[in-house]
Amino acid sequence: MNPSSSTTAEGVLPAHDAHDAHHDHPSYLVDGTTIKSWLLTVDHKRIAIMYLVWILLFFLVGGIFAMAIRIEMLTPGPTIMDAMTYNRTFTLHGMVMIFLFMIPAIPAVFGNFVLPLMLGAKDVAFPKLNLASLYIYLAGAFLALWGMINGGLDTGWTFYTPYSTHTTTTVAPVLFGAFIIGFSSIATGLNFIVTIHTMRAPGITWFKLPLFAWALYATSCIQVLATPVIGLLMVIVTGEQLFHFGLFDPARGGDPVLFQHLFWFYSHPAVYIMVLPSFGVMSEVVATYSRKNIFGYRAIAYSSLGIAFVGFFVWGHHMFVSGQSTFDAGVFGVLTMLVGVFTAIKVFNWVGTVYKGAVDFKTPFAYFCGFLFFTVFGGMTGIAVATTSLDVHWHDTYFVVAHFHFIMVGATVMAFLASLHYWFPKMFGKTYHEGWGLVAAAFIILGFNATFIPQFLLGNYGMPRRYFEYPERYQALNVASTAGASLLAFGFLIIAIYLVYSLAYGRASGQNPWRSKGYEWLSASPPPTHNFVGPQPTYPEEPHFYVDPKKAEVPDVV
Amino acid sequence: MSSSAHSAAASPGVPRLAQHFASIEVQNHAARLGMWLFLSTEILLFAGLFVCYGCYRYLFPEAFAAASRHLDLTMGTVNTVVLITSSLTAALAVHYAKEGKNGVVALMFALTIGMACIFLVIKGFEYSHKFAEGALPGPYYRMEAVQLPGVPLYFTIYFLATGLHAFHVVVGMSVLVWLMFKAMREKNFGPNNYVAVELGSMYWHLVDLVWIFLFPLLYLI
Ligand code: HEM
Ligand SMILES: [Cu+2]
């Protein structure tokens, strides 16, 4: 355990209740205040906070580069950088956002923090592995960033061969960094799966798992099953770059399309690693603020597993124009649409939950509304690009850029912000200013739309992605997109200000400010080191149990 | 599991319970499940290589057949036998750990490690042989005898796969060395405390299993 943590019982369980005075159980935030007690902690909550700090930092880095991209696109010719710098800029932006922000964001921060609480457990199954995964993540991140600064990388985050094995920029450290980060992702996923299997408190059966836990479970399965494949690929490409073996180089008999198959075999499921946890968050949020029992609990739980499963069979939709047969393209297209079906199941259930609910329009709920829009719109365009004939037109245009930003940035960042606000009182025991929360949410949601809707149009008019100059006629829409990005950035700034302010001066929130029925609110806010003091809570009700649908037709208006 | 304050007091045959687990059974269950998941990621890691192998074998069937006939079948076969036998001794270690015969456990692991060394030495001979012949990956290939397009790719895959496997052998050996010393010094494996031995052996079986696939793919067909 962490060296300076409480002096209370360490070791066997029952001894814990021996001295049960409150001052014996300080919150995890103040239980040990040395730097070492943080850096070497094995407490899942402290690890989550450390992840949060780093992930926000990387989000800032990625965001600065996003703004650089948008400023460059303000004018048709060069604006603030040359072509090579532009290539490196969008690569760095994509790399950082995908591998350092989107993939770990929700599982590593909020999953880590609330999953054990939701299960009534004292920690995750392997606390040391949890800490190791944080440091592995940081090691990989710094190696990759070091490579990108010293020499840079101009391949885009997809590292397509044979370009990536021939470019003179520093591919090796960046790829190797990505490989290392993969281990962190696997470790987190493995830890969560084992935790959910073995650490549920008595009374929490599989079908009493909160939906966020179900979503994390499905996500973890993808992490464990897909990541090794890209790990291998990263190692091979690093080797190719250094020694030119030619495995993916057509000049030496290798097959670059094989690279794309292996790459997308991971990277398509990876987009569900990013988006499934968001779905889970939203199930929690929607039930809490509608004050209504979640509609279609089992359908939502199963559809997460469904998405995780079909997610493995759709990678070919990234290669419609790579020369695969029409038949293959058709199969991949149809399978892709199945993902849409599973997502639609969730969407209908969320809407069904809000219907006739007593909606409490707090900040997280505002993000839920934004999320619903981005998911539906982004999902619909996903169905559109899964249609081979249409995708041939849109492939590698801004339409695709807009599509994945709608889903990944729109939906996932909404969920990230919703989690941040929803669990902020749980994590820090403080409240933030609701009015500022709603104002910032408005900026963010409008900003996203203003940034990416013009990009859909640009793509449809034929503007290719990753080009640094463009014909005059695309300028108006590019300017609109940059203006939208500024709104977005402004929204983030507001959030940063009021959340930091609340950390210092916020009112104490009390244990359960939202009067949520989520299991994680059964412990104090912020929780003590071992999560629960005294006898373990019992779990007689289902999660998300606000109104018994069988007994009450009318929601209990409060 | 240093999270237990009682580590020093651990008595023979009694495993330590980390404070966040409800019981020893749950803790062991978690450890096993974790190991199975980890092993499945290892298999998937190699699966990527098998996919590469399959694709290039399909693209260059003659080249692959010709190149594979250039490997030393005797050495490969001996290595296969050595590795399978080492898996047996690793399994026996678990058996004796359950009976609390810590000395035999250490012996079994010593045998396993010894065979792993033999495996690596033989592998080293094979490698140096290939280096001398010029049967090297990609651009470094310069073996006069076989000149077909695709052969350099075969050797790329050969070195990647066997290299990655050898790396796993080394990792596995380190785990087994650690367990061997544990059995010798602490002598506390027994009917209630053998999960560590079990997990170490499981890892070793994986190393064996991967080789069982590599051997026919690379040497036989
Ligand atoms: C903050 C607002 C953001 C803006 C204005 C923005 C803008 C852009 C632009 C202009 C591109 C380059 C498109 C191209 O040339 O092909 C791009 C690429 C990309 N962005 Fe963002 N982005 C933002 C946030 C994010 C976030 C949060 C993510 C996290 C997933 C993200 C992920 C990506 C990815 C994966 C690419 C593709 C990179 C590539 O293909 O090389 N972006 N973004
Ligand atoms: Cu995809």
Question: What would you say this structure looks like, in words?
Answer:
- The complex is a heterodimer of chains A (558) and B (221).
- Chain A is built from 16 helices and no strands.
- With 558 residues, chain A is mainly α.
- Chain A has one domain (45-521): Cytochrome C Oxidase, Chain A (Up-down Bundle).
- The radius of gyration of chain A is 23 Å and the shape is globular.
- Chain A starts with 34 loop residues before the first helix and ends in a 53-residue tail after the last helix.
- Residues 1-22 of chain A have low confidence and may be disordered.
- Chain B has 221 residues and is mainly alpha-helical.
- Chain B has a single domain, classed as Four Helix Bundle (Hemerythrin (Met), subunit A), CATH 1.20.120.
- In chain B, helix 1 runs antiparallel to helix 5 and helix 3 (73-98) runs antiparallel to helix 4.
- The A-B interface holds A 1, 9-13, 42, 121-127, 186, 190-191, 193-195, 197-199, 224-225, 227-229, 231-233, 236, 239, 243-247, 252-255, 258, 261-262, 530 and B 2-6, 17-22, 26, 29-30, 33-34, 37-38, 40-42, 44-49, 51-52, 55-56, 59-60, 137-140, 149-150, 152-153, 156-157, 160.
- Copper (II) ion is lined by residues 268, 271, 317-318 of chain A.
